What does this fold into?
Amino acid sequence: MWKVAIIDDDPNLLEGMRYAIPWKELQAEWVGEAIDGKEGLKLILQAEPDIVISDIDMPVMNGLEMFEALRREQYEGKFIILSGYSDFEYARQALRLSVDDYLSKPISIESLKKVLERVIGNLEQERLKEQEAQEHEQRLQDFEPYVMKEWLKSLLIGDAGKQVIRSELVQVKVEQWEKQVHVVLCMELEMSDGLKNWYAFDRSLMRFAIQNVVREILDDYEVEYEYMEMNSRLYALLIHLDANEQSEQQLQTITRQSSRQIELALRDHVKLTMATGVGSFQKDWGQLGESFEQACHSLKGETLGEDKPIQGQEISSVRFFHQLAEAVRNVQEEHGNQLIAEYIAGLKADEPFHKQDVKQFVSELWIIMNYSLYDIGIELKNMYPAFEPVPEPGGEHTTDSLQRWLKEMVRTIIHSTYMNENVRHQKIVEFITQFTHEHYMEDITLGMIAEKVQVSKNYLGQIFKNVMNETFNNYITRIRMERAKGMLLEGNLYIYEVAEKVGYNSISYFSTQFKKYTGYNPTDLIK
It folds into this structure.
């Protein structure tokens, strides 16, 4: 209901309007009246009406003085003037105060009704725009962490340089980084029975288990850090420390100790084998890509720039492989071709490649491309089984043959019949799973998330089930039960506290769900 206040020194007029205005038809309500501007000012600041109908000529404080005082108080309601004066000076002052209508007395109720209908219509339009702006701002806030994640990834693989996107989170980070030294710690999951078991059970839950282990360990050190998932097997930590004479030495100690702790914790608690590699220390955050590339080489036991027997020109480039995989994953064929052209331009055109170098190039690119696409439900071997460049007629591999093969490979994968739809669905589900793990303790529903990603609830449910092979309700219950099981085993909380922390207000309902999921009662874990 729109709230309306009436200010006039004529008691008969006040009473007449109060009873004659069709309030119900206008979806409005009377919230008060006053007989002078001073009392009117007090009434309006207390009742906060949407519309004020007021006379000009009143004792103590006239209507225009009252309007001016309200504007100083940041009152943003609508003003309608009813006055027996038709003086131009009054009209000019009313315009300056942004009065919405100026009507001369006497006025009929029908005329006032039409004015009120127009003003209320304007209010409805303004509120609608305001609501849309708020919803848009909320969506931006919801998605900002994901924008931040993509920017960090592009920074590591060399796409971003020192370009800073318009994001409050990014701006704050960059201001901190200017005063710090930086290093990248890479972590790669090695193939093991534990990894196979996790893949069969729940890759999403595995990712969050790894993230929780890393955070528990890094939080014990006084450093700023960001945790990044490059693909389903490769993870990166961007670690920062305030710059001083000992900062690089301190970072060396932190990365050495924390990497060992992470390896042991994942092996003992998550049953995963993780290899770690540390990159070069950088004073310029714009060189984090260099640190990332060196960390990737360190994973393989190599030192970037080390002397090796030269049989042909060096063609492997971890950064290029990640850039190209990211372009393919995001269905960006033009960008992929641009990356290929820039990479080929950096090679020696008149010098052929040695077969062993090409074999290593293909192997490294296949691994990175395969795991990047596997994250979005695509198996590279099914889409592009002949993953090997075709040599020139003479049997040599050259820059031209390599470029042709790379462009053909990108085109074939991106123009696959289900690539575009699969990528879009996977990104939506990725948002849902991330949001669920961050808000599982709240009363979240699929309908609420559907509003955030702007698709229908039923369609979103179908997408989620197709990608995750389970319903959203089953998924969030499983996340909550796994969290609850962990907290109960730690033994630091009562059952009702655990129930509240995983989003249940009823202990009995929580206990029922817990037994249904695990097969035993919550009390069995704390005995």
DSSP finds 22 helices and nine strands in the chain. The CA atoms of residues 320 and 343 lie 7 Å apart. The chain has a mean pLDDT of 83.
